[in-house]
Amino acid sequence: MTTLLRVEDLEFKQKPKRGFFKKQSKFTLSKVSFELNAGETLAILGENGSGKSLLGKLLVGAEVPSGGHIYLNGQKLSPYNLKQRCLNIRMVFQHSNESLNPGINVAKILGNPLILNTKLNASERQKKIEDTLKLVGLLPDHMFFYRHMLSDGQRQRLALAKALILDPQVIVADEPFAALDPSVRSQTINLIMKLQKDLGLGFIFISHNLGIIRHISDRVLIMQDGNLVETGKTDVIFNWPKSEYTEKLIKSHQSLITPR
After folding, report:
1. Quick check: 115 pLDDT over 80?
2. Which of 40, 163, 174, 246 could form a disulfide with 206 if both were Cys (CB 3.0 to 4.6 A apart)?
3. Fold of domain 3-12+28-97+164-246
4. Over the stretch 224-243, which tens digit does the pLDDT of each residue have?
5. Domain-wise residue ranges, the chain
6. Please, which residues have CB within 8 angstroms of residue 213's CB and are 6 or more apart in sequence?
7. 18: which DSSP letter?
């Protein structure tokens, strides 16, 4: 398989800030390295505060790393060239409401990134918006809707359309299903898996839901307190975990799904 994304020794050292009463603690993400192939899903798993969401932000350029390098198709990405990063690596957030402006309609939500990052004219932008809406299972007429007019599932599909509108090669999804009810969650998971197959996207899926991770991921990266604990193929990690921390996570998941 073709290596799409390569991360080498990526790290982040947060400078401590002083509050009114005490010095705030700093968070350090130790050196993390991994590869992502085209058409592959890498899951980043860990408890709250493990650094998994921070790692996602470093990949999309929302945070600047203290060290290390990110390569896309063998080309080094500059941590300061946000347009280069924005075009190729896009993010889907857990709460779609936070990423969708309630004051503008869907056409503008999807059209603004095209205006800022492409040379498409008005008619070409409209066609691109319609095609992307269809791609995620929405109707062309949805471009006239506002955020409050959409259901939770439709908002998450719109958030996915917003990530896809610039034809990225990698999608980073940070807990994209946590706020959805089970039936809508299942539909969204199936949609993402279909899009990945059809478009050859690389997916980085951040979660603590082991059931979903086991279902959709090819490989898993385990994080704890800002450190990379272990990584490997999903089946291998779930059946033969090397670290006590990974084994604890898997056993806690199995205790929830095993009938008493």
Report:
1. yes
2. 174
3. Rossmann fold (3.40.50)
4. 999 999 999 999 999 999 99
5. 3-12+28-97+164-246
6. 43, 45, 205, 207, 220, 234
7. B
